[in-house]
C-alpha cells in the first residue's frame, strides 16, 4: 500500500491546480416583489382595513362640524397673531393675542 501512495501523490502534484471560480453566482430572476415587500404590503393593507371604519366616522363628524369650524376660523383669523398657549397655575389655558406693532411714521421718520 505504501508503494502506491508515493506515486499517487507525485501524480496528483503534477495535475494542474484549479483556481476557485470567481464568477458571480447566478442571480434569481426578478419574479415580482420580494418576501419582505409582500409582507409589508399585507401589513399595510390589514392596517388600512382596520382603520377604514374609524376614518369614515371621523369624516362624517368633520362634515357635521364644518360650519362651526369655518365660523371659528373666521373669528380667529391668522394664527400668527397669537402667542403660544400658556397653562396657568389654576389649570386654565390662555392664548394671548400678540401686541399690534406701532404704525410707521410719515416720510420714513424714526422716533428716537
TrEMBL record:
<feature type="region of interest" description="Disordered">
    <location>
        <begin position="87"/>
        <end position="112"/>
    </location>
</feature>
<protein>
    <recommendedName>
        <fullName>AAA+ family ATPase</fullName>
    </recommendedName>
</protein>
<keyword id="KW-0732">Signal</keyword>
<feature type="signal peptide">
    <location>
        <begin position="1"/>
        <end position="19"/>
    </location>
</feature>
<feature type="region of interest" description="Disordered">
    <location>
        <begin position="17"/>
        <end position="37"/>
    </location>
</feature>
Amino acid at each position: 500500500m505504501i508503494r502506491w501512495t508515493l506515486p499517487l501523490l507525485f501524480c496528483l502534484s503534477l495535475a494542474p491546480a484549479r483556481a476557485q471560480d470567481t464568477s458571480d453566482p447566478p442571480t434569481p430572476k426578478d419574479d415580482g416583489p420580494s418576501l419582505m415587500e409582500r409582507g409589508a404590503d399585507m401589513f399595510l393593507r390589514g392596517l388600512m382595513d382596520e382603520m377604514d371604519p374609524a376614518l369614515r366616522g371621523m369624516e362624517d363628524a368633520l362634515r357635521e362640524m364644518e360650519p362651526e369650524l369655518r365660523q371659528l376660523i373666521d373669528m380667529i383669523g391668522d394664527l400668527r397673531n397669537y402667542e403660544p398657549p400658556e397653562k396657568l397655575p389654576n389649570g386654565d389655558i390662555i392664548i394671548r393675542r400678540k401686541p399690534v406693532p406701532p404704525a410707521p411714521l410719515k416720510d420714513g421718520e424714526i422716533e428716537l
